Request: fold
Amino acid sequence: MQVKRCYAFYAFTFFGNKKGVQTMKYDQFTKNMPWMMPMVNPEHIQQLQTEFTENFRQLMLQASQGSLPPVKDRRFSSEAWQQNPQFSALAHLYLLSASTMNKWVEQLEIPDASRERLRFSITQWLDAFAPSNFFALNPDALKAFQESKGESLQKGMANLMHDLQKGRITQTDETVFEVGRNLAITEGSVVFENPYFQLIQYKPQTPTVHETPLLMVPPCINKYYILDLQPENSMVAYTVAQGHTVFLVSWRNPLPEDKDDIQNATWEDYIENGVLKAISVVSDISGKEKINALGFCVGGTMLACALAVARKRGQDPVAALSLLTTFLDFEHTGIMDVFVDEAHASLREQQLGQGGLLTAAELGTTFSFLRPNELVWNYVVNNYLKGQSPAAFDLLYWNADGTNLPGPFFTWYFRNTYLENNLKKPNYLSISGTPVDLGLLDMPVYIYASKDDHIVPWDSAYASTHILQGPKRFVLGASGHIAGVINPPAKNKRHYWVSSAETEQVFPVSSQWFDNTRQVQGSWWPDWSEWLASHAGKKVRAKKTAGNGTYPELEPAPGKYVKVKAV
Reply:
């Protein structure tokens, strides 16, 4: 098919015959789509059509004159797209049509929640039907085919068949990495194990350490080694080097063939036998009544919930708390809102509420399609259309190394956080009969958020400052959910924002806080490290061995749980 014959594919709704572009009447537009009539103002549709028609005419005129401007979209940024008039026009037309469709969504007279879902759906379709995703419409793919004498397409089909057998798109060269060989290699020992987690104690790298140890609680929906990638970007290794005794929770990855009832594990099980047990073991090994604790993403939510339970029971086990990209208030969950409604919650409860596993494959696919152009379609183009092999990237290897979740845990979490936002309600929920009140937490807290985080929007992370009662330091880093967090100082990349006042002030809304900040170049890790040191006590001689008489060394880090493959 010739490129010029595909223009109409992207604009068929808006123009009609060979004689020229025509504006479709509103009654014609809705004749076969009566469901749209109460939702669309006819004048707005007419305006959109007129605007599209004029932009289309200008586009065709520029194309005929060879004066099309460069396409400002990285999908079409290569020389092959820019220098070929037909392909350049196709890219411009696609972007024009996509823009018009998005404007149409904004004009619909529907509730905001419905608009958000429709906006998400339209975006998914628009991204999927980008001309760059089709071999015959992608000049880069055609060029690779010509230069390789067809070998690129042959390799692409081989890559496709391999991924079909694997059940997911390959995002990185997975042969390069191995947990325990070049990932998660910070030296340490497993000192405790139960059906829910292994506890790792890392070997000190300094002669003296702060007397108060640090427990890290990662999310159970991912492998922990996002915090311990390669040595140069390991937050665990960095923290150990700063003179802290670090413990870390390595969550078990449940499998369908497991026979110990792990598929029926609940949120309560993970709080009691996971987080609270880990805190107890760290306290026992260190001999400290109070420890410091850090929670990342869902791990932070679980950690805060566990500490609220402990407080209600008259215990105060954590001196200082760090929360990284964490929800406590689920009022605004950003793009995740499109998945959240009663129908979805009820369906999941029917499927998984009484047992079973939410698979890593399903979780991985869902999160990838939150950013399809970065995590799906670019790999379709490179791997299949061009026949390229993806580069080695540790973050993407971790991203593909997913975990399964027990169904009852997930359904409780989905309903009581995302759907009903019950966790922030004082004494509304209970764990083993103990009411949960996050407002009881008054220890010093360091709250980190990422400005471009699509999983935990930063203003929602800021909302935690209204729930927690102790002294607070809020830090906003550049980039997203993962890249913002994993930003080692040695690379001097990105920047972060902190309060410009000497004393941190809690503002009613996040924008007011941002208006009173200063920007700092580089990683936020040193800022956090300085804050943590101020709450970690004096320096003492580092212990040469891990564990104690009650909790001896069981095996070297990273342990066996993290090596279990779900997919």
